[in-house]
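sry for the spam today, last one i promise. struct tokens for design, 426 residues
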């Protein structure tokens, strides 16, 4: 990947012992090493310290049922667990779903086209220490469910990577009263009108990095607290792009290398509703407002930020890879969302950006609806430890010994983590 790291230089897979405010690793989950690995290689920002279900039970999701043994709801009901998928397709939720603490959700293990939830909100409220990768969370017009697609309140130390969240009735992806959260390489799309909001981000330490915010009328995001906003691509907002606080409370933000690309529904400015309480260091952002089919934006200026308090130096936030806005545009379109097997929805959204088309919607049916996710056959895993027999054999492990999943090598990752992390790197 192009780009350089800002702030403190950090090895690709390791960071020092947990920063203040992050949970200490649980006893017995990580080898006694001088350093503890980040959530996975490439995890960055405030939430990178999550260990998820490291060292815990490996739980196989074996069906697409709403509940019961082998269901996703049962899988995430308690931790510590590493959740892997033997099935792909849509999980049709019958009610809102809550994810417990100390969970790793390895959506990259789902066979076929991958996996998604459908119809109801997925909540991480009051949970901590969670890793979520390559999942799709799609809400839609479920009756009497005017909720976020993904939400959290009172959460801590969570990292979302390559997630697709769409069709929220309230917000698409909201982070309130929480600490140490990262959302990276994700797609936050098509909040449903009349509300149509990307999300509230009102928390103490959130990293939004290399995400695509697309076809949300406003709140891309609405930010209060401490926000690290790096290399995001915001396309076809309506009245408001990135809302700078609009609050009596003091906020601190770094906005680096973002690309704001207007579309057919855009009527308002990329940065809105600031006041002097919003303290921001902004550098190398681009605004492209003419909807002419070209990438020919101009550099954002202090004037674009309105009455916000402009900081000459960045706030001392965690190290995050920073690209130019033009590089970030390419990176986001190439890989954001659950992109190991992009579904028709995310493919359409990426093409909307490329062709500078599309609109804010009220009903998913107007753009083709949920579509289908084809399942597939999971590789043979005789001891049910989350690692296929062929992979274990190649790695010198015993495919008949489930206990080796939690063994830790010199990297600090358990063997099952090395396997699932390798899948996400394809």
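last one done:
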């Amino acid at each position: 990947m192009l780009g350089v790291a800002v702030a403190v230089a950090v090895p690709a897979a390791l960071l020092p012992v947990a920063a203040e405010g992050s949970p200490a690793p649980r006893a017995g989950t990580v080898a006694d090493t001088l350093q503890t690995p980040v959530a996975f290689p490439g995890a960055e920002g405030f939430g990178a310290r999550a260990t998820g279900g490291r060292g815990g039970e490996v739980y196989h999701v074996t069906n697409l049922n709403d509940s019961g043994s082998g269901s996703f709801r049962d899988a995430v009901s308690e931790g510590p667990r590493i959740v892997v998928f033997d099935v792909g397709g849509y999980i049709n939720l019958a009610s809102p779903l809550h994810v417990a603490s100390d969970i790793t959700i390895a959506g990259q293990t789902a066979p076929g086209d991958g996996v998604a939830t459908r119809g109801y909100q997925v909540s991480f409220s009051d949970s901590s220490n969670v890793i979520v990768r390559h999942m799709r969370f799609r809400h839609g017009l479920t009756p009497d469910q005017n909720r976020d697609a993904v939400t959290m309140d009172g959460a801590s130390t969570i990292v979302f990577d390559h997630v697709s969240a769409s069709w929220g009735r309230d917000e698409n992806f909201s982070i309130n009263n929480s600490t140490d959260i990262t959302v990276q390489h994700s797609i936050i799309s098509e909040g449903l009108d009349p509300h149509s909001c990307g999300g509230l981000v009102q928390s103490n330490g959130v990293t939004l990095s290399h995400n695509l915010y697309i076809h949300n009328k406003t709140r891309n995001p609405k930010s209060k607290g401490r926000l690290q906003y790096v290399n995001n691509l915001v396309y076809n907002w309506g009245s408001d792009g990135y809302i700078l606080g609009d609050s009596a409370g003091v906020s601190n933000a770094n906005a680096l290398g973002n690309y704001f690309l207007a579309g057919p529904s855009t009527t308002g400015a990329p940065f809105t509703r600031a006041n002097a309480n919003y303290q921001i260091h902004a550098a190398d952002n681009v605004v492209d407002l003419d909807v002419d089919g070209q990438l020919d934006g101009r550099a954002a200026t202090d004037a674009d930020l309105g009455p916000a308090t402009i900081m000459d130096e960045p706030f001392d936030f965690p190290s995050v890879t920073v690209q130019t806005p033009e590089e970030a545009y390419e990176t986001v379109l190439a890989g954001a969302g659950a992109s190991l097997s992009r579904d028709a929805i995310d493919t359409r959204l990426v093409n909307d950006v490329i062709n500078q088309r599309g609109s804010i919607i009220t009903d998913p049916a107007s753009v083709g609806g949920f579509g289908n996710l084809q399942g597939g056959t999971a590789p043979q895993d005789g001891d049910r430890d989350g690692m296929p027999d062929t992979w274990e054999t190649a790695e010198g492990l015993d495919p008949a010994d489930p206990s080796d999943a939690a063994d830790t090598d010199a990297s600090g990752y358990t063997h099952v983590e090395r396997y699932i992390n390798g899948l996400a790197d394809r």
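Residues 1-34 have pLDDT under 50 and may be disordered. ok im logging off now
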